[in-house]
Amino acid sequence: MAACLSAAVVQSQTDSTARVLDEVVVTANRFAQKQSSTGKVLSVINRAAIERSLGMSVAELLNQQAGIAIAGANNNMGTNPDVYMRGAATGNTLILVDGVPMYDVSTINNTFDLNHLPLEAIERIEILKGAQSTVYGSDAVAGVIHIITRKKSQQPLGGFGSVTAGSWGTLRSAAGLRGTGGPLSYQVQYQDNRSRGMSAAFDSSGRKEFDRDGFRQQTANVSLSLALGKRLTLRGQGLAGDYVTGLDRSAYNDERDFTATNRNMQGGGGIDFQAERFSLHANVQQGYLRRIYLDDSLHVGGFAKYSREQYEGRSGFAEVYGKVKLSDRWDLLAGIDHRWFDTDQSFYSLSSFGPYTSELSGDTARTSLTSAFLSFFHHNNRGFFLEGGTRVNRHSRFGDHATFTLNPSFVWKERWKVFANLSSAFKAPSLYQLFDGSVGQPMLEPERSVTAAITTASMPGDWNGKAV
To answer: What is the pTM of this model?
Structure first.
């Protein structure tokens, strides 16, 4: 059961879904372009589809898309979802939020917890399949999931809200304000998700003694932009939230006092400069995530009578990139970025054999990655498009590595599209893989891949950049 309540202080805008032939504008190559003018395998979940799915989580919505499987999407709320795209292992799909890569460097594969992203705060999701490391860097091996948050309103003040209720005592609610006043635009939003839940373990005895594993989450996000004239814009954004969820010992063993507490804090800003034939963009972002697993129950006997695990990860990202219109048919995109990571981890358990402890310090478990990329784009008025480029990477551990992309496409009679792709990608080793006391290998090389594909697509209706 779902109920949605919406309110606006001012008159709402016309629903864009009513304009059937609106242009589909995407950011697959880091700048706005018609979907028909890119040779990438790309699909878009627009705002209308998101509004029809407000009873779901981000993981549940992505799990419905072709070529994507989210392990844990349909489990109890609070299950950490793992993304598998085109059969590639978890950690090989890069998650972006407003163009910035998201990581949890305290995990085995740097995978970001999608539970931290409320669906109510998202404007659209662009899904890029195939190797994308030349434009987006490490981890974009199987593809990229680009989550674009809701933007400013053209009115001075607007309000919005939603309430969704379901079984197992599930209740999702969100409310916020957004608007534009002179050069300043803003959006502030708060979400609360909770559920009494069910037991994550299966009661094979049928005695119905397993307790419910509940879930409670609170998230707040804010975004600001300040226009300094017609060409220069300053941006700032922040996201903070935490959730607590109950856990069980195993698939068939209940645990009454086993909980996981997850905290996520992201903050950053950027600058956009737009001229007639040139644009320049800069972004900086700092992220902090913490996970605590606490088991202080004697309800289930086992090796450990008490355990506490704490994982903290910090990641940073800074970039500058620009696009130059060389001529009516040629565009150039170039940029540099720097990423840095460190983690602190501790484990303590108490059993009949006595206490056991292990630690990993951020003073040791840290890496950085610096990259520079260059891509060119060619198009003509006969339906031909071409992308080519390369990225050079320097990692603080494994040294230098380069990737490339060659991606021609052709649209014939505004109905048929043929596109080919030859590209490489890589995944830098995680902090766990490098520094873990049991399995870490400090001299690991990156994982590498090469993608080669030729695809033909038939698009009904008006395919010249229109929604059909």
So the answer is: 0.86
Give per-residue pLDDT as tens, 75-124: 888 888 899 998 899 999 999 999 999 999 999 999 999 989 888 889 89
Pairing of strands 93-97, 143-149: parallel
Tell me how far apart the alpha carbons of residues 253 and 303 are, in angstroms, rounded to a whole number: 14
Task: Show the CA angle centred on residue 466, arms to residues 460 and 468, nearest 5°.
Answer: 40
User: Which CATH code is given to the segment(s) 158-458?
Assistant: 2.40.170.20
What is the C-alpha to C-alpha distance for residues 99 and 116, in angstroms, rounded to an integer? Answer: 17
158-to-6, 16, 181, 257 alpha-carbon distances in Å: 11, 17, 11, 43
Phi and psi of 199, rounded to 5°? Answer: -70, 130
- Domain ranges within the chain, ordered by starting residue: 158-458
Query: pLDDT tens digits, residue range 208-239?
Result: 778 888 899 999 999 999 999 889 999 999 99
CA distances for 66 relative to 56, 86, 175, 245, angstroms: 17, 9, 31, 29
**Element spanning 179, H or E:** strand 170-181
How does pLDDT run across 123-174, given as a tens digit for each residue?
Answer: 899 999 989 999 999 999 999 999 998 876 778 888 888 888 888 889 989 9
Q: Judge whether 235 and 270 are in contact, CB under 8 Å.
A: yes
- C-alpha radius of gyration, the chain, whole number: 23
Q: Which residues contact 283 (CB under 8 A, 6 or more apart)?
A: 99, 100, 268, 269, 270, 317, 318, 319
Measured from the Cβ of residue 32, the count of other Cβ atoms closer than 10 Å reads 12
